[in-house]
Fold each of these.
Amino acid sequence: MSASSVPDCLIVGGGVIGLSLAYELANHGATVEVIDRGPIGREASWAGAGILPPANLATAIDPLDRLRALSHQLYREWSDRLREETGIDNGYRECGGLYLARSVGEVASLHAFAAMLRELEIEIERLSLAEVAEMEPALRELATGELEAAYSLPGEAQLRNPDHLRALALACGQLGVQIRSNCEATGFDYSNGRMTGVRTNTGSLHADRYCLASGAWTQQLLKQLGVTTGIMPIRGQMVLFKCDTPPFSRVLNEGPRYLVPRDDGRVLVGSTEEEAGFDKSTTEEAIDELAALARQLVPALRAAPIENSWAGLRPGSFDGFPYIGQMPGLDNAFAAAGHYRSGLHMSPGTAVVLRQLILGEEPAIDLTPFRVGRG
Ligand SMILES: Cc1cc2nc3c(=O)[nH]c(=O)nc-3n(C[C@H](O)[C@H](O)[C@H](O)COP(=O)(O)OP(=O)(O)OC[C@H]3O[C@@H](n4cnc5c(N)ncnc54)[C@H](O)[C@@H]3O)c2cc1C
């Protein structure tokens, strides 16, 4: 796009949002540079579970549902393309999901959730307890015991975040995107309503346009530009079990907790929602609680060893909406952050609408509800 030596766009943050935007921009002919203060893709995007619940663009009205649905529609295509371009399988699987309830409160919220999905014409099926045991024999004990209600969502999918990030980074590199790790943005230069440079620990960098995709750390950077958002870190802890073979095949959800079966027998269990500042440590209490939940639901996990545990910082926002758009008062600066629990899911859609905005096209989704500077 640009004939000058500076890139068309400099992206601050090499998580799934920054890399997806870089991939999308580069696929549309833009020259792009991505910087990250650490290694690429090792923060929230690496830590997440990779659950992609179903969505329906034809019926979605709520702006968040529309962004989710646009992304959902794109995921299969992006996964196929990334596999062709890089040889990396990102683990995208339409494995389906089961939603489980063991208490009166959970049953009520599950029925409400099912009604909402039916309104959106998303396939969801109420299961008898016998059907649960038949579909997932690993849940037989639960189905004849504490389980009160269950639904099946055949359209739920999953991906393996670290593989998806590796594929995105490699595909970006093949498209000529410059990726710099260990390069931290520390400040900004701007004049006459335009950003003119990003100061980093390795010197100033310049581009025609700039985008902050710095996850939970975005507000710290925006503060320097006098822009206020409600982005804050929300810690999520995870436990990884290792089984010889996958004990079940669908994502199991109960309230905000879930178990994700990987092809190789690993089972990921998450997650907590904690305000702990920028502290990424795990706590014994949370890990024990997640492990106990997993063992209650799936007896096969009682004998399985815990292989690993970790925590990541989700970029939360005060109203649950991400911030996607132009920065107030700066024509050539943009932000994309605050995707909270759904940043992996919403990344392709975010990349597409922001690419459209940055390249001067009409975004496929109205971005007003996501405007930067609210809050
Ligand atoms: C435990 C857990 C489970 C989750 N499960 C799911 C799930 O199942 N499905 C789903 O869709 N989402 C899930 N999420 C949420 C999802 O992971 C996030 O919403 C998403 O990863 C956010 O992506 P990001 O690129 O904005 O942030 P990040 O991945 O955090 O990337 C931001 C990047 O910016 C860099 N950075 C920060 N400051 C600077 C600076 N000053 N200069 C340069 N670089 C900087 C960081 O180093 C980082 O690499 C989960 C999150 C967690 C923690």
Amino acid sequence: MREKLARFMAGRNGVDQLSRAIMYAVLILFIASVFTHGKLSSVLMMLAVIGIVYMYFRVFSRNTAKRRAENTRYMQRTYSMRTYFRNLGERWKQRRDYKFFRCPSCGTLLRVPRGKGKIKVVCRKCGNSFIKHT
Ligand SMILES: [Zn+2]
């Protein structure tokens, strides 16, 4: 069974980040259509179905060059958004041990250990320093 699948997928695009993003969008559309009524619900459901079809089209596509280009474009366009959410996740994980400040002059996010009292924070990017309580 696994071999059969591997043979079937040979030369095909497979699941990439864009396909995964479409899958999440489809899931959200589907849930939204369940909780809405009438025309809006049907439109959301239709979009979800189109999304599923498009996702499978990309996964099984043999035009891997084109699919890879699409995926790269998607990754470039969403880079700042993905970085933002990854940073949020990291800050949440480190919230017990570190405090985060933005440099008042350049806006860089700075990480400082908690529980050190009043300290002078020096920005690693622009060298600006400011006093903060941790
Ligand atoms: Zn700075």
Amino acid sequence: MTQAREAVRRALACVDEPAYLALDDGARLPQTAGPAVVTRMLERLEVEPGHRVLEIGTGSGFTAAVLSRLVRPGGHITSIDIDARLTARAAKLLDSDGCRNVRLVTGDGTRWVPDSRYDRVIAWVAPVRVPDVWVRQAVPGAVLVSPVHLAPLARAMAVVRLRRGPTPDRLAADLLMPGGFSEARPEPHDHWPVPSYGVDALTRDAAGRMWWVAAEWLRAHEPAVGMRLLELMITDGWHTAWPVPGERGADLHAYLMAARPDGLTTAALGAQGWGAGYSQPDGVALVGPADDLFVAGAPAAAERLDRWAREWRERGRPGMADLEPRLHRRGSGWDVRAVVP
Ligand SMILES: C[S@@+](CC[C@H](N)C(=O)[O-])C[C@H]1O[C@@H](n2cnc3c(N)ncnc32)[C@H](O)[C@@H]1O
């Protein structure tokens, strides 16, 4: 691990990130994941010289440039993006950066990838489930790192590490890490204001800010129920301090995604980012983006979230890194779920 960390550190230091991210008009290409998440994912991928790496989500070409260095000498990168404008742009940048071992391809990397044998697979967009096509083209022993959903709710996400066994049906997951990404899309998109997966009701407030809510119980109801809940959140919702200072909302989010209690909810709160917690038709209580508490409507909602938080404390306040991943075969891929050990 120390060796992998050192190799990633050296490769990152060699790449001029602003050159990849700067657009002609001076703006920056939007990156969903912060540098700490990108670094951690590259370290956990355990890339070595000579490896053949498949990357899904070329974007600016920055991570392809880092990978290009990590596999030298002898290795090569195949990087795929849904957006032909991005692959064309990245091709030029990588060429002028001397990265001759990178092949760029345009397409939906969750459905198709160029025929080859890959030692490593890394995705920077979240598929609905880990697609078979990645596992089939990976060699026995290959490592795969990808963002995934831990529950069928928007933003209920983590990054998983997988290892392929001797045959493609032998896949094992050994690690979960925190990390939020946009969802893989079937076509290019200029903006990602709304998650493309797991949103149950969506609206904008008077200032045009986006609010959405995701909860499995909503799926059994008329759309009007979700819209009324959003109205309640916009008109009646308020933020307050989390009752126990120092507790990390992200850890409670992770625990709830693993425990999957009835009523588990994720929601976007206008300009205030997003939160996770509990909802029922007449109330919501969420751990908000700044480790705060967001409540609207019936006090029973806040009482339920408080009960969940007490259970979480009793179990030692586990966060994402304490959870264990489990794989479930589903359709043409693998669902990843988490359990509290
Ligand atoms: C977070 S960005 C990638 C950032 C990139 N690694 C970098 O260094 O700039 C995610 C990328 O995934 C692409 N994408 C979205 N859906 C996709 C899909 N189905 N297949 C391949 N790429 C996809 C987007 O166009 C976007 O460029």
